[in-house]
Design brief:
- The chain contains 6 helices and no strands.
- By secondary structure, it is mostly helical.
- Helix 3 runs antiparallel to helix 4.
- The longest helix is centred in the first third of the chain and has 27 residues.
- It starts with a helix and ends with a helix.
């Protein structure tokens, strides 16, 4: 990967992380509200799931920014995004007045998942902890 590709890779990692890291921090700051929302989705073990989702978003977002275990973080976040989309944005079963918004969010998340899979294929680039670790 040349300098330009590594620079774009870094910018892309940061851009994708802006979806996950702030969302995780907001969930952490409003953990009761997050639990109530998850409860409305009828997901099992809400108390555990809330903390797991929050940790995945914060740790995964930081891993992308730092380029640490980039491929693993990207694959994990892609799987997380798919699961969150199927559970939280199921437009096919949403009320008619909410279906369009749910569909837009679902499709957006599929695009994000695609970007994460491309990142998983390309790795962290030269400006990452992964590259620094491989030189040591």
């Amino acid at each position: 990967m040349n300098k330009a590709q590594s620079t774009l890779n870094l910018i892309g990692r940061i851009a994708i992380a802006t979806l996950f890291l702030p969302a995780g921090i907001l969930k952490l700051m409003g953990i009761e509200d997050t639990g109530a929302y998850f409860g409305s989705l009828s997901v099992p073990v809400v108390a555990i799931l809330v903390w797991m989702v929050t940790a995945i978003e914060i740790v995964g977002g930081l891993a992308l920014i730092l380029g640490y275990q980039t491929r693993i973080a990207a694959i994990g976040l892609a799987g997380f995004t798919l699961g969150a989309s199927l559970i939280g944005h199921a437009f096919w079963s949403a009320p008619e007045d909410a279906a369009l918004i749910a569909q837009l969010i679902f499709v957006r998340n599929m695009a994000i998942m695609g970007g994460l899979l491309v990142l998983a294929a390309s790795g962290g680039g030269a400006y990452s902890l992964d590259a620094h670790k491989s030189k040591a």
